[in-house]
Amino acid sequence: MKSYLIVANWKQNGDSSLCAEYLKIKKTDHAIVVCPPYHLLSELKLPHGYFLGAQNVSPFPNGSYTGEIGAEMLKKANVSYCIVGHSERRELFKETVEHFASKIKLLLSFSITPIICVGESIADYKLEKGNSVVRSQLTSLLSTLDPICAPIIVAYEPIWSIGTGLIPTSEYIISITDMIKSCMVLFRNKNIIHDKILYGGSVNEDTISTTLSIREIQGVLVGGASLKIESFNKLIVSYTSRDKRSF
User: Is 194 a known active-site residue?
Assistant: First the structure.
């Protein structure tokens, strides 16, 4: 049976009332990961079988790094997944491949699964450079990892799609995910069967049908639609009600 991974990224949003709303989250056989701001990790209560995620992690081990949250701290907070390399971290905070590589290695050392974000800008998309840009982003990170280490997740999230309501065509997404799969086969070796590819960017109940039919997409990274439990539950229902099929 095909098991999907649905990841809610609250970003710099949410409070106690949203945590309470998530008590109404739909039951499903698919894996649900919720990534609230750090201060809500201990307050957010999820049903058994659902998972806590973090939106970021320090590239350093515990120590004198004011304002940072370490991988060991996340582990002690029962975090199972962590987003790494989001375009907002790249653009707004000028984080580099070196930062992301350090974060991924630290997360894996504490058995936290990294969700590695890759995606092209609107300029690269218009110049038909999306494939090469995403390949470069991904290979620069995969080349730093032990091919037999724990599973990872790659989230393809075109920057020009985030929060705009625009999403690529199915054909375009397939071309990117096929390339991602080939890179993972090259660098990840036998572990490829345990890795997953997600899609992110304006994912909601109106656009979800685009990704549901793409074989290589094994889940979604959800932003704005995760801030309203009614919208997020509709996404869960979309996956739960569709015909399940093997990989």
Answer: no
- Measure CA 214 to chain center: 17
Residue-wise pLDDT tens digits, 94-147: 999 999 999 999 999 999 999 999 999 999 999 999 999 999 999 999 998 887
Residues 153, 116 contacting (CB under 8 angstroms) = yes
Query: Could you tell me which residues come within 8 angstroms of residue 67 by beta carbon, excluding any fewer than 6 positions away?
Result: none
| Catalytic residue of the set 86, 95, 99, 120 | 86
User: What is the dihedral angle through the alpha carbons of 47, 240, 224, 81, rounded to the nearest 10 degrees?
Assistant: 50
Helix or strand or coil: residue 218?
coil
Task: Read off the pLDDT of residues 175-220 as tens digits, 9 standing for 90 and up.
Answer: 999 999 999 988 887 677 789 999 999 999 888 888 888 988 999 9
Q: Are 56 and 28 in contact (CB under 8 A)?
A: no
Helices marked H in the chain — which ranges?
A: 16-21, 71-76, 87-92, 97-109, 122-126, 130-142, 170-188, 208-212, 229-241
Task: Please tell me which residue in 30, 99, 120, 157 is annotated as part of the active site.
Answer: 157
Q: Which two tokens stand for residue 239?
A: 């996956």
Burial class of 98 by CB neighbour count within 10 A (0 to 12, 13 to 18, 19+): exposed
Whole-model pTM over 0.90: yes
DSSP annotation of 128: T
Straight-line distance from the first to the last Cα atom of the chain, in angstroms, rounded to the nearest whole number = 8
